[in-house]
Structure formats: C-alpha cells, structure tokens
Amino acid sequence: MITPPIEKLLTVMNQKGYRVYNTPSIDWNINIVGIRNKNLIPDKFDDTLIVFNNFLDHWHISYYPITTDPSVFYLKNPVNSKGTAILLEGQYKGVYKIDKHNNRYHALCQRLADVSVYRDNDKNGSLKLNTDTIETGRFGINIHKGPKNGNWGTDNNAAYSAGCQVFADSRHFNEFMNKCRNGEKSFGNKFTYTLLNEKDFD
Q1: Nearest to 139, CA basis, from 92, 191, 197, 173
Q2: Percent helix, percent strand, percent coil in the chain, to nearest 5
Q3: Which pLDDT score is estimated for 139?
Q4: pLDDT tens-digit series, residues 162-176
Q5: H helix or E strand, kind and range, residue 169
Q6: Are 164 and 49 in contact (CB under 8 A)?
C-alpha cells in the first residue's frame, strides 16, 4: 500500500489528463482513486484506495488498504468463459452508484456505464495482464467490503472477488460508504473511479 501526498496525487492525475473534482465552496465532491501495487500478487491487500475532496480550500484525504486483483479462487475458477476479470487502469467517469452488491448490502456498484478489463484464463492462480484479452462492458466490477477485521486467517472467504475492488477491513469500508453517502446528498448518486499504478509515482 502506498500513500502519496495530495500534491503528488494531483500531479499524476493532471499529467494523465484525468478529471479532479474540486468545488471548495461545496463539501463532499469526492474523488475515488485506486493505486495498484506494481508487484502483482493476488490474495494480498497490497493496493490502496484514496478518497479526497476539497472544502474551504483544504484537501481532505483518506487512505485505505484494498485489493484491485481477483482472488486466487476465481483466477483458478473463472465465472466467465473468457477468463477472470482484472480491471484495466484508467478513469471511469460516472460509472458507479450506491446500490446493492449481490443483493446483500450497499456498496459502490458499476451500474451506469462500461469499464474495461483484462481476461485471465490460464487458471494457474497468478495474474496475467494480456492486452490481447481486453474487453469493455458492464461486468459488475464493484467496490465492496472484504473480511470483518482484515485478518485472512479468521473470517475471509476465498471467493471474495471475481474482479471487484475489495476493502481489507469492513470498518474502513463503512467509513468509505459514509463519505459516498455524503457525496450523494451533495452531488447525486453518480461516482467516478480512477485506477492508477504505483509505477505512476516513480
């Protein structure tokens, strides 16, 4: 997990031409950014999710450990005949909304537009980002919670992700959802997710 300062994060976003939501006079115009670890290791919460917003000319920023990778279980047992989905890095504007994840609990769900994914179909349990397999569509790449306390050895389900962005700790997830609900009240139920790579900060 990396925690770049807001200045560096803004620089990388601007260099890539990505939109940064910035309304200092209205609170909760939140930016949601994932950073994938440059070492592709599944079944580790070694990626970062960042939520930041500007209010009264001050940037408020929070960092959370997540995984942007599918679990080994689904890498070996794809639910799609083309292979397991791995979200492509990029900015997905207005793609997400607060909705029920698997009809179980509210999360940030890919409901409003398409995303792009790699398809890993060699079923060997490792991650392969092959550009020849990229496809775009509505695949349910949601942002949801993982184990209750971030401990793999107690309450984690091996089938926790078929390509979603998953929080390491449900308490962090609950805090994240509170921020999203505040954002919904101020700007509507429509959210952008940007996925970067740790290499972008080298």
Answers
A1: 92
A2: 20, 35, 45
A3: 96
A4: 899 999 888 899 999
A5: none
A6: no
User: In terms of DSSP H, where are the helices of the chain?
Assistant: 6-15, 72-76, 152-155, 170-187
Torsion sign over Cα 184, 186, 188, 190 = negative
Cα(156)–Cα(49) distance, integer angstroms? 20
Residue 83: which of 116, 115, 120 has the closest Cα? 120
Instruction: Give the list of residues 6+ apart from residue 153 with CB closer than 8 angstroms, or none.
Output: none
**pLDDT one-digit tens code per residue, 92-125:** 999 999 999 989 999 999 999 999 999 999 999 8
2-11, 28-37, 65-74: segment of lowest average pLDDT: 65-74
Work out the end-to-end distance of the chain between its first and last CA atoms, rounded to an integer number of angstroms: 14
Please give the mean pLDDT across all residues of the chain: 92
Q: Which residues pair with 141 in a beta bridge?
A: none
